[in-house]
Structure formats: structure tokens, C-alpha cells
Design goal:
With about 210 residues, the protein is an alpha+beta fold. It is about 40% helix and about 10% strand. It has 9 helices and 4 strands; from the N terminus they run ααβααααβαβαβα. Strands 1-2-4-3 form a 4-stranded antiparallel beta sheet, with helices on both faces.
Length: about 210
């Protein structure tokens, strides 16, 4: 697939066909992740494919804690925090399936990275270079998925201490995101259209 076509096709998907993901496709996606720029040039990143059903359920529970809302009244109340109608439409579909998508997706990937210092001790943007690098890796993964006809969404855990124990992640490493991966079902939520003309500035930020 053409690079720009992959960019245009990439989207967040939370519901998947039961069709399994071919191993060779999955490995190509992860190889693409390793091609991303790395802050320390060492690519101190690790990928965990979570296959055991019980471990997957535990990971899904930990990652989605506080995010999943299935009660209709609670859902509508939660949606009040967003005024943009596209955002409301997206979250109306997303919030009820935060845990389900992690349990039911054909593949579940945890992306980990090495930290020079704990996030709580970071005092400058420079200190966050390790975090920035792993998200470049994740972006490569998402674009490669689109090129392969695969989709998913990044789910960022709020607390990772217990999650790291469940996944056996050693000290000095952190979990950046957990990504469900699979072939999508029909997905009708519209993506917000943004004009480059409105976002591009020359020399300094010029308000419209």
C-alpha cells in the first residue's frame, strides 16, 4: 500500500471480526515498529503478545478500569463532558467496549519501553524523550497495521504497577499502551476533519 494511503486509512477500531490475524502480517507490523526513530538509538522497546485467555482477561480488567461504562444513564452523564458532537458520538460507542475489545480482539499487544528515570521524577521535556520515542514506535505500528488491513486502538493504562507484575515487566521498564489488533467490523464513527490551512503558522503562532 502507498504510504499516504496507509495514513489516510488509519483509524481507531474497537470491534473486530473473529478472523485470526496471520502471524506473518503481525510480525511485519512489529518489525515496522522497530524501524521508528529512537531517542537513545538503542530501541530499548519490548513487545508482549498476550495469548493466555486468563492473563488477557486480567490485563483487560486492569487497563480498562474506570474507563468502561455500560449503564445507559451513566454513559449519557459521562458524555456531558464533551461538547463536540463528533467526540460524543465516538465516546458513545467507545466507552461501553473498553474492556470487551481487549478480551475479544484476535491479538492483544502490550508495548513496553525502558525509562532512564521514573515518570514521576521527570522534570523537563528532555526527560520525556524515552516516552516520546516509544510513541513514534507505536505510530509506525498503527500505520503498518493499516497497510496490512488491520486495525485497533491505543489503550493507555492509568496505573501500571499491577499490570507490570501480571506481564512480568522488569523494573526500569514501563508499559506505554495496550493495543487490540484485528480485522475490523463495519465502523461508522466519523473522523474529525481538520484543515492544514487552519493549523499551519509561519514564524509565529497567528490566531485566526
Amino acid at each position: 500500500m502507498d504510504f499516504y494511503e496507509a495514513i489516510n486509512r488509519r483509524k481507531s477500531v474497537r470491534e473486530f471480526q473473529p478472523r485470526p490475524v496471520e502471524k506473518e502480517r503481525l510480525l511485519r507490523v512489529l518489525e515496522a515498529g522497530l524501524k521508528a526513530p529512537s531517542n537513545n538509538h538503542l530501541r530499548q522497546w519490548e513487545f508482549i503478545l498476550i495469548e493466555d485467555a486468563e492473563r488477557r482477561r486480567k490485563v483487560a480488567e486492569l487497563v480498562s478500569k474506570g474507563k468502561t461504562i455500560t449503564n445507559e444513564m451513566e454513559l449519557e452523564k459521562a458524555l456531558d463532558r464533551w461538547s463536540d458532537e463528533l467526540q460524543r458520538e465516538m465516546y458513545r460507542k467507545a466507552l461501553p467496549v473498553q474492556e470487551k475489545m481487549l478480551v475479544d480482539s484476535p491479538e492483544l499487544l502490550a508495548v513496553c519501553y525502558r525509562l532512564r528515570k521514573p515518570l514521576k521524577e521527570c522534570e523537563s521535556l528532555y526527560d520525556l524523550n524515552d516516552l516520546a520515542s516509544i510513541w513514534m514506535c507505536i505510530e509506525n505500528i498503527l500505520l503498518a497495521m493499516a497497510a496490512e488491513g488491520l486495525y485497533g486502538v491505543t489503550s493507555v493504562p492509568r496505573e501500571t504497577a499491577v499490570l507490570k507484575k501480571v506481564l512480568g515487566v522488569p523494573d526500569g521498564y514501563e508499559v506505554a499502551a495496550v493495543i487490540p489488533i484485528g480485522y475490523p467490523v463495519d465502523y461508522s464513527v466519523k473522523q474529525k476533519t481538520v484543515s492544514l490551512v487552519e493549523k499551519l503558522h509561519y514564524d509565529k503562532w497567528m490566531s485566526s
